[in-house]
């Protein structure tokens, strides 16, 4: 019986197929799903902020940031027998939840998260093979490393599989 | 610049923040009750400092569909504020505001209903911030609100990200109120960390 492991906000989890990983209600945060294409090790990070170096007391939770979170996820996957060379990623989220002109910095955090995630994955040499990012709505995602399917649910929209 | 750490907020500060929340929510409800022309009762608000992963559990799940009203706060303090309302509660309130011309049984929001919701959000958050300004004697200007209808987790990611810059917790005020049906509303005030210190200083507390 396979299990779906839940990843909270600013959290990350790994799994081994046929298990899957899910995170609910991604808003401006980005869900980064990575799998090793040959050994069925997978993982999901729920990234909240782009850059750990821009924060004063950043050591507290490394899963929170794009740079440290993805690095840690890859490290944990490698500990399970995954190889970075065979890893591919799919990403979702990074929405702009409110149209609000007053605080462009905060409102653009979704886009900045997506940019930071892409940059980090490129640095690690992990290609992004699919994405569903931006726009203005929340997403629930489920990742199945077995098939590599990334299921995305949104309010009032049909299920999308990337 | 003062380095206020939310994790070390003492019980005294808690009581102050709770009381501010209480007064703010009370004023917001008075304004709402005048708007819909009927009496609204409320419970004592709960003020909680929550871990990010606990957020979903308090509001009935990350995927619970909610209406969020978000606005910026400027003036002596800066930051933002979010008022969250469960979808069916929002429909109920809107129907009252629209004098029975809404569609409380349908989950969809018409353009008219969105506009009414924006107005409800405007009045509730305005009253809340006004009372905060009165008590602290600080100048607080709210920006026009923006509303969205989506999953609770997605809406809450906006203030959570702002709190995330300073720590791993979020300060949330839950206020339950009811006319003939029970309505759960949540206020999340996100002052920039320096503004916290200003609010507490304005109230005569050592920071």
Q: In terms of per-residue confidence, which ranges of chain A show pLDDT below 50 for 5 or more consecutive residues? A: none
Can you write the helix and strand succession of chain A as a string? EEEEEHEHHEEEE
Name the structural class of chain A: alpha+beta
CATH class of chain A: Alpha Beta
General shape of chain B = globular
Query: How many independent structural domains of chain A?
Result: 1
Helix content of chain A: 10-25%
CATH 2nd-level architecture of chain B? 3-Layer(aba) Sandwich
Write down the Rg of chain A. 15 Å
Instruction: List the secondary-structure elements of chain B in sequence, H or E.
Output: HEEHEEHHEEHEEH
Uncertain residue segments of chain B? none
Report the structural category of chain B.
Answer: alpha+beta
Percent of residues in beta strands of chain B: 25-35%
What oligomeric state is this? heterodimer
Number of alpha- plus pi-helical segments of chain A: 3
CATH T-level fold name of chain B:
Chemotaxis protein chec
Biggest interface, CB < 8 A: A-B, 32 and 36 residues
